[in-house]
Amino acid sequence: MALLHACAFLHRRGELRARAVTVDHGLQPTSAEVARRVISIAESWGVPAEVSSVNVEAGVDGLEAAAREARYDALEAARSADGADWVLTAHTRSDQAETVLLGLMRGSGTRSLAGMALRTGRVVRPLLDVDRASTLASCRAQNIEVWHDPMNVDDSFARVRARSLLESLEADLGQPITANLARTAELCRADADCLDELAEPSAAAVRGRTEVPLSEVADLEDALASRVLREWLISLDVPAQSFGAARISELLALIRDPGSQGRAHTRLSLPGDTEVIITGQVLRFRREAKAD
């Protein structure tokens, strides 16, 4: 609501053209009522608004991931239909800290620990350097109605548990953990961007190829080789979310293992009936044909 209020102010001044879109995931009994209330408030502030209702079913990555994907798809569809330049979301520094903490818990690499970018494609996060407490205080100071999603206190979700842990750590240690984790994200993003740029020439050379000489990966430093392998698999339509840093490390270890190169075949199975096969000095990608 803090972001909506700020956009409404600029909309009335003619400094931007805003349209509010609230996504109803249908995961709470009162979600439709809350969505209608948000629309009413937006329109009372002079901002045209709409509800986008989506159906969410938990996939292999869980309900949170499915809801996030459905939400971004709905926002992008609304942006495209409206001819807007950007989608603005209200992610805060607190959300960023939770994202980094979740990445640490998974043992993720620098790209994941970089968290959310200020801008990703058409999505902009203007409140990413503002903590959640400040946005709530702003709403209270201006008597803006705020709705708290019941799912934000449901500890069956990993993000909710991470949020609770952050609050406990800050209270127990007396340190600005949220701000520090957000700073960690900035540092990791700078490093990840640099490494991505260094890896790009090698990644470009292997994209879309089902057979790659081992030397094109094995001769690289680990930080670059892991990025090249990731880009290679993505280019062959292996979903990025289906394999993590641990799987890439496993593949890289096989590539560097002299024993793998000496055997007739060394295989590593991947999601979606795919596999990588090391034969001599060649890295091969294979997708099993689906039965009719």
Brief write-up:
This protein has helices spanning 2-12, 31-44, 63-82, 93-106, 110-113, 132-141, 158-173, 177-206, 215-218, 222-235, 245-256, 258-262, and strands at residues 20-24, 49-53, 87-88, 119-120, 123-124, 211-213, 266-270, 274-279, 282-287. It is of the alpha/beta class and 292 residues long.
Total beta-strand segments: 9
Net shape: elongated
Largest sheet: 4 strands, antiparallel
The termini sit apart by 50 Å
The chain-level structural class is alpha/beta
CATH topology of the domain at 1-88: Rossmann fold
Amount of beta strand: 5-15%
Mean pLDDT: 90
The CATH superfamily label of the domain at 1-88 reads HUPs
List the helices and strands and how they pair.
Blueprint: H1 2-12, E1 20-24, H2 31-44, E2 49-53, H3 63-82, E3 87-88, H4 93-106, H5 110-113, E4 119-120, E5 123-124, H6 132-141, H7 158-173, H8 177-206, E6 211-213, H9 215-218, H10 222-235, H11 245-256, H12 258-262, E7 266-270, E8 274-279, E9 282-287
Parallel strand pairs: 1-2, 3-5
Antiparallel strand pairs: 4-5, 6-9, 7-8, 8-9
Helix pairs in contact: 4-7, 4-8, 8-10, 10-11
